[in-house]
Amino acid sequence: MGGFGPAGNLGTFPGTSGGSGYNTDFSAPGSTPLTIGTVTFWTMECPADLPIGAVEQRVAVTELIGGGRVVQNLGVQPKRVQWRGKLFQPNVESRITALRQMAVLGAPVSITWGYEQYTCVIVAFTPTYHNINYADYEIEIEITQSNNGVLTGNPPTAPDQQVNQQSNEAGGSGNNLNNLDPTGSQIFYPDLESFLQALQGAGPLSQLTQAQILTLLNGCNGVIALVQQYLGNQSPTSQEYALAQQLINTLTLLAANLSNGETQQTIVVQGGTLYHIASKYCGDPTQAGVIQVANGLPSPILPTGVATTLVIPAGLGQAA
Prior knowledge:
By secondary structure, this protein is α+β, with helices and mostly antiparallel strands. Helices cover 35% and strands 27% of the residues. The chain folds into three domains: 3-146, Elongation Factor Tu (Ef-tu), domain 3 (Beta Barrel), CATH 2.40.30; 159-260; 264-313.
């Protein structure tokens, strides 16, 4: 008599012959065994479906005054994987103990299922005993590294590149306003030129002192206030109003980048994800994208066993 074989596929249990019924020996690997660290799940212990390898592209959307939007690519992130199943004899207790220890330690371990190979951390493991012969289990893992190939997205833009781009955009908007309204724009245009010249001559953010960055930040905020004053004198339907609003939006983003570069912390880590690092050092895992951009990393997943030096930008807060 046939039954559900490895990974939910129709097949015959080990030792089963003809119509003799089901065999209680589940200790054969089957066609698609699942292995986590030192623990192997055999035949019917394996899930019928395992959503491993799923990824999502993370983006940060900033809503700007006036209806504008800035969409930043934060990089690709593997989705968490969770499933449930049953553990049968032999070695139910020893395998539960091993899985529990891996979950408690939180160390990266390998996971292999068919052609899929990854490094993961066991986030949660819940066994439910029924008797000495079998137990139900639920498990959830966080993928920390793909061993099937490089798991990367489009490289994010580094802070200095963003500042240079926003500086050029601000200069372009200011020039357009000065050409369109040479008299009225004098309320802010000379200060804008002075600020952009100082910014251009300052050099990379990472090489500036806190006092230098604070001076640039104050200059930027001062220009924003002057452009806002100019904006208040324009008709909301005019071209001058649209250009001034665009200039304010650009300068606001530029000020945010300057603020992030005010002070920084440097750490050295081996493996893991930027979400864990952001949670530990900033108290907020959603800051992983900011750390990724600040360090010019292609992915929030760090290589296991390789020392990586990371800069934690200022303004992200510290974990309690």
